[in-house]
């Protein structure tokens, strides 16, 4: 109990509780919002990948090939 000779326990608990509350209130929101490019928003959005590299998409309209074997499916990359 030699430590409490120098530190007021009530003031310490109140200060500690206030500090925890302040940190809790100032932490930024860490929700991830997934936005996929559409023809309406392709020019308006800027994306950032896991390496913090920013990029955007460029819309290019092409004709689909008549031979379905030439159409490839690209899986979603997370």
3D architecture notes:
The chain has one helix spanning 9-26; strands spanning 47-48, 54-55. A hairpin with a 5-residue loop joins β1 and β2 (54-55). It is mostly helical and 78 residues long. The protein has one domain (3-59). Strands 1-2 form a two-stranded antiparallel ribbon. The model has no long low-confidence stretch (mean pLDDT 87). The protein has one helix and two strands; from the N terminus they run αββ. It starts with 8 loop residues before the first helix and ends in a 23-residue tail after the last strand.
Mean pLDDT across the residues is 87
Helix content: 10-25%
Number of strands: 2
Strand content: 5-15%
Return residue spans where pLDDT drops below 50 for at least 5 consecutive residues: none
What is the total domain count?
1
Summing up helix and strand content along with how strands pair, one would put the structural category as: mainly alpha
Q: What is the straight-line distance between the termini?
A: 55 Å
CA radius of gyration: 27 Å
Q: What's the tally of helices?
A: 1
Report strand order across the widest sheet.
Answer: 1-2
User: Sheet bearing the most strands, described?
Assistant: 2 strands, antiparallel
**Principal-axis shape:** rod-shaped
- What series of H and E elements makes up the topology? HEE
Keywords: Membrane, Transmembrane, Transmembrane helix
Transmembrane segments: 6-27
